[in-house]
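queue> holo job accepted (guanosine-5'-diphosphate)
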Amino acid sequence: MSNIVAIVGRPNVGKSTLFNRLTESRKAIVDDMSGVTRDRHYGMAEWINKPFTVVDTGGYVANSDDVFESAINEQVLIAIEEASVILFMVDVNTGITDLDDSIAAILRRSRKPVFVVANKVDNNSQRNDASVFYGFGLGELHLISSMTGSGTGELLDEVVTHF
Ligand code: GDP
Ligand code: MG
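queue> job finished
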């Protein structure tokens, strides 16, 4: 597969909501793969005549016993490995959490194009709150609302330049 966009982030930031929005009309084309990939969901999407695969991950979860070897984190690491572009999703309403920082550290080592996607920016009054995410020192910052679709077009315009 080529042109793979992986959506990573801690649980509840809105990854699956964005995945569903991007893959809406084509959801059934790619079945989820079995075996080792079972916790990553694949869908087909297209933007300006450029088709790509979107990967929704279960969400990176810190595990105090064994952070890096738990199954859920393993599939996030695989998704990062196979991605051509990574969307690192965070929640504008919570700011940066410890878990966000852990994921950012992994992404800094990935050498892949990373877009920091501040989700849940449903209205303009939240735009200033998102500037805190520049603190990751990772890639471009995009403000979106997966719920309303606001900002997703501008994000995709940039993402497809990497294909
Ligand atoms: P995931 O765990 O990262 O896959 O997150 P989900 O996509 O399951 O979303 C978690 C919760 O956030 C759900 O209640 C969504 O409806 C909500 N949510 C997702 N995107 C947005 C958004 O843009 N704005 C708001 N207000 N809520 C959102
Ligand atoms: Mg999800």
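queue> The CA atoms of residues 98 and 163 lie 32 Å apart.
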